[in-house]
Design brief:
heterodimer; A: 100 residues; alpha/beta; Transcription Regulator spoIIAA; four-stranded parallel sheet; two-stranded parallel sheet; globular; B: 179 residues; alpha+beta; Heat Shock Protein 90; seven-stranded antiparallel sheet; 5 helices; 7 strands; 32% strand
Chain lengths: 100, 179
């Protein structure tokens, strides 16, 4: 079962670490028993490094350690957003999710 | 954007978004600098609220300049503990305020004990490295320190300069000059 988490519901830009933490908690609760979660960045103009680290990279880290039991992919990210997200993953030395 | 006060992270979200939207949708001559300006507003304003530790919050303003070159200037300030004192929580040996600021801008250097923090300044400089950027200059004044970071042709150059006087808090101006 797949679940799509639409980030644009939370704004056109995603700037801060506290927002990243809030959305990661929200996503984990809403994903339920989904096996794959698509992080849908369509409509997002920009994300900051702090948001990307707290939301995507920490989530990827929790998946690697087994604290979270679903896989993620990154969907519809603009080139600017994709670059920031990939850099955040690289800084935490976690495997990059599939980009779709 | 006029001088705007922020006391909470939610307000940083709004100010950063508004900065990018104004640049990208209303000012076509500097619109390619929108993402770089967003990153600077996000990271530096969040730092000011997070590490500034001051009830007055943080203040930011953005100005577009058209002569002699097209550029965006961002100013961010707070009256908190300042970068040198904050960074000395983890690096007490960095006694010179100017060099303490300079080291604080290096990747993975943080005043917190979290190994994943300390990338705010690096991400701001990275976001500016686009084909639309001619040059970038950031001046950081805090306590008795004055540090200037200039990026020309993708190479950052850090200078520690004499500060005219002691300043409470942290005062940053960041110029992004378009090609």
């Amino acid at each position: 079962m797949a679940y799509r988490y639409a980030l644009a519901e939370h704004g056109k830009t995603l700037a801060t670490r506290p927002l990243g933490q809030e959305l990661r908690t929200d996503l984990v609760q809403k994903a339920g028993s989904a096996e794959v979660v698509a992080l849908d960045f369509s409509g997002i103009l920009s994300t900051s490094h702090s948001f990307a680290d707290e939301f995507v990279a920490r989530l990827a880290e929790e998946i690697e350690t087994g604290d979270v039991n679903f896989a993620i992919n990154i969907s519809s990210a603009s080139p600017d957003v994709e670059r920031v997200v990939l850099k955040a993953l690289e800084r935490r030395h976690v495997e990059a999710p599939v980009l779709v | 954007m006029p001088v705007t006060c922020m006391k909470e992270f939610l307000e940083v979200e709004g100010v950063a978004e508004r900065t990018q939207e104004i640049l990208e949708y209303q000012l076509p001559d500097v619109s390619p600098l929108g993402h770089a300006a967003f990153m600077a507003m996000s990271e530096l304003c969040a730092n000011a609220i997070d590490h500034g530790e001051n009830d007055l919050g943080a203040f930011a303003a953005v100005r577009r300049v058209t002569e002699p070159k097209r550029q965006v200037t961002i100013a961010i300030s707070d009256l908190g503990i300042g970068v040198p004192e904050h960074i000395r929580q983890c690096y007490p040996e960095w006694s010179d305020d100017g060099w303490a600021i300079a080291y604080a801008t290096k990747e993975s250097v943080s005043g917190t004990d979290n190994p994943h923090r300390g990338v705010g300044f690096s991400s701001v400089f990275e976001a500016a490295l686009t084909s639309s950027l001619h040059a970038a200059k950031m001046d950081i004044l805090s306590a008795s320190g004055f540090c200037r970071i200039q990026t020309v042709q993708e190479i950052p150059k850090i200078e520690v300069l004499p500060a005219a006087r002691f300043r409470r808090g942290t005062w940053i101006t960041y110029d992004l000059v378009s090609v």
